Amino acid sequence: MRLPKTILMYPMTLACQAAHMVMRFQQNLAELVIKGDSTLESIFPPKDEKPEWATFDEDLPGAIDGGHGALPEGVDGDRRAEGRFALYSVSDAPEASDSKGVAPPATPRPARQSKKSARNPAVPQPEVAAELDYPTLTLAQLRARLQTLTVDELEALLAYEQATKARAPFQTLLTNRITRANAK
After folding, report:
1. Which of 87, 112, 163, 178 fits a disulfide with 139 by CB distance 3.0 to 4.6 angstroms?
2. Whole-number Å distance between alpha carbons of 161 and 170
3. How far apart are CA 14 and CA 51, in angstroms?
4. Quick one: pLDDT band at residue 26, thresholds 50, 70, 90?
5. pLDDT in tens, 100-118
6. What is the DSSP letter of 44?
7. Residue 96 DSSP label
8. How far apart are CA 165 and CA 112, in angstroms?
9. What residues contact 61, with CB distance under 8 A and at least 6 apart?
């Protein structure tokens, strides 16, 4: 009576035992590797040398309070907002310090303005830009709002972006959305 049940359970029992043996072997091998590493470290101690290409904020000259000090000469502070990090760029407003005179932690800044925007800072803001509060939007926030805009509104935003900040990721996003909207 128990024979049919036992025969049906054998394949599963064998598979479980095989898996158990494989895992036990892996654990033993890992223990041997750890022992070998510790033995090699005792024979050949690691060198505490710092590669010249490794630079940390606290190593920079003038680093204060965990690295929120000034950047070294020749380093542009706007570089954090370019490329893939432009997704989180926010505004042009300079950072203000609190009542103790300590500057708040650094926040991502927008990408550099083009020469065109430096020459013409007083560009009229389109109605859709004012409605969306466009100058304060990050790339991710803009992407979320693009579906609700018409082609004319998208073109107005693109023209406004080109005339003011000229941020490449924003221009690309708007151009791609206009192309997709025109294709429909």
Report:
1. 87
2. 8
3. 52
4. very high
5. 444 444 444 444 444 444 4
6. S
7. P
8. 7
9. 72
